[in-house]
Amino acid sequence: MAQPIELQPQAITVQELAAINSRQVPERYIREGVGALDASFPVLDVPTIDLQLLASSSSTSGDELDKLRSALSSYGCIQAINHGITSAFLDKLREVARQFFALPSEEKKKYSREIGSIEGYGNDMILSEDQILDWTDRLYLILRPEDKQTLKFWPENPESFRGILNDYSTKLHVILEVLLKAMARSLNLEENQFLQQYGDQATMQARFNFYPICPRPDQVLGVKPHADGSVITMLLQDKEVEGLQVLKDDQWFNVPIIPQALLINVGDQAEIMSNGIFKSPVHRVVTNSERERITVAVFCIPHPDQEIQPVEELINETHPSLYKKVKDYVSLYFQYYQQGRRPMEAALI
């Protein structure tokens, strides 16, 4: 499938729009039937998983593996605790993100993304004239492998930004290995099965998200409903402001904040590998009329040439293969995403 063609970049960031007019939202951001973040949405009881237990060979790790399998099959996501990253470090990461988005517009725009590319500072690619836009600005950076980093997009202000982000990617890589091995063991597979498919040429991509105050949270979304095209996504939530919602049983649920936890969800490519046992959850971000919100999402994505397919041991007469082999899944992803469709449609047999 051809790469999507961007019609034109947005002339103004959402942060600038919100500053210019705090009472109105341009038509291009309006959606019907959004529903604001309030008591009308139930809270999703996302299972909390102890990553230290998953990494250990103690007798208690078996219980945690069962919990992991159940969580990823039912919810598609976990609140990961005891992940080896201190609360103080996570707060530093939140702080450099906040400092970057607080910079003057001219300073931030030094890192603007180029047309047709996701990397750098900006907002939605505009792929059609009638596309409804998300109420968010983003800084999108490739973290790993290091030789794929495009440093012209990496802020030099705040000064500590680059060092903290590099440290974070190293820490997340350790967590990713623990998690992929545990996911395989939870399905009684050899522990490297998912890790091998993920591959040693995989990329880790960070997206810093800024959601300005929005006067119409009942009509505007921070991010439209979607599931991730990754194998794994790790989200550092805002410490105080909620906004993430997950679709379960045709109902939207608010995802609570645990400040010291990482919210980790499986993406479409892990659903394919597990032959549909693990579910890639559909989620969205709602807006807030009183407070801005900042999050950091990291997507773990196989190399475009890597073949992704259901693990053979998970296919039998009772459970036939549900998915084709796929390559370069992410190139499908953005076109389907902007159309509000799931790219998984293209992978189903």
TrEMBL record:
PROSITE patterns, per database record: FE2OG_OXY
TM regions (residue ranges): none
Keywords recorded for this protein, A-Z: Iron, Metal-binding, Oxidoreductase
SUPFAM superfamilies for this protein: Clavaminate synthase-like (SSF51197)
Highest taxon of source: Eukaryota
MF terms (GO), sorted A to Z: metal ion binding; oxidoreductase activity
Residues annotated as domain Fe2OG dioxygenase: 202-302
Record-stated family: Belongs to the iron/ascorbate-dependent oxidoreductase family.
Name by which UniProt lists this protein: Fe2OG dioxygenase domain-containing protein
Source lineage: Eukaryota, Viridiplantae, Streptophyta, Embryophyta, Tracheophyta
